[in-house]
Amino acid sequence: MALIVLKIGGTEGVNPDAILDDVAEHWKREQNLVLVHGGSAEATALGEQLGRPPRFIVSPSGHTSRYTDRATLEVFIMAVNGKINTLLVEGLRRRGVNAFGLSGLDGGLLQGTRKEAIQSVENGKRKIIRDDYSGKIERVHVPLLRWLLENGYLPLVAPLAVGAQGEALNVDADRAAAQIAVALGADWLILLTAAPGLLERFPDESSLIRELPFAQISQAHQAAQGRMKKKVLAAEEALSGGVPRVLIADGRISNPLQRALQGEGTLIHL
Predict the structure, then answer these.
(1) CATH number, domain 4-269
(2) Which pTM does this prediction carry?
């Protein structure tokens, strides 16, 4: 049975009800899914309500990420692991799916290394930031996910990892999904987002790139704008780790999972 790792976008614009409907229908036929979710929009909204508006960092390579000091990390945990994960589990259980919500902290599911220092570019100048609680995933505790799947649970993973000192780390959800897909030897990594896929001329949706071989991944990096840069990076990491197919597909439409599996979106493959 083909194993699928599905990442649900955390940005505004995706249709969570349509995604959950589709996931539930698929799960009742084939219990071969692991879900990873983001939550950037919810974390931003909560941070603003609490007087902790987000600060975003642009790396020298052009990738954007959330600056995560300890206070921001706690807001992120409340929004993503506390609210979004729980509500997604509720939505799946209402649809008859025995979902099991957890973060990468739980059981050491996602073990990572905290970045001691990160670089950002502000007003054309490079700065070093040393109090950031973000990290890179180094290891996935595969037996835990396998046990959940074998016992009829749909794993639903929030993008947090545990560091070497037991501390919580904010990790990118797309790249977390890629590492989970690699560790499980998944057949598909599907990244649902608020776009039809990777666009050659952003934001022109008629310029959808439908297919790219991995050998031409540089074209995908050149076309990607904004948050799509992280998705292309996640695709590259998954394919480099042996996942044969990555789909960047539309999470705004009806039946998004099934339509992605039928080839809608951008397919990047070995």
Answers:
(1) 3.40.1160.10
(2) 0.94
